[in-house]
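Sample pair:
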Amino acid sequence: MCPNGTLWQAAPAKVLRELTADEIAWKGNGTLQYQKLAQRCLTALHPAEPATERASDAAPAHSGEPEHITLHEYRTR
């Protein structure tokens, strides 16, 4: 079992060193940010309806790049 507060590496694993209090706090903060992100997503995201038609005046999805067409459309040009 790996003791808390230590950094391990390799296979077979070996202890490299003990972690500092700042490293442990930094990791804890990063984990908290991901947890908050998940909470924000759950409250802010909402279902979207797919478009059934493309508006004729709509800009290409990626400006400056050609619009994707199906193989059938390409062959009939």
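The two ends are 66 Å apart (CA to CA).
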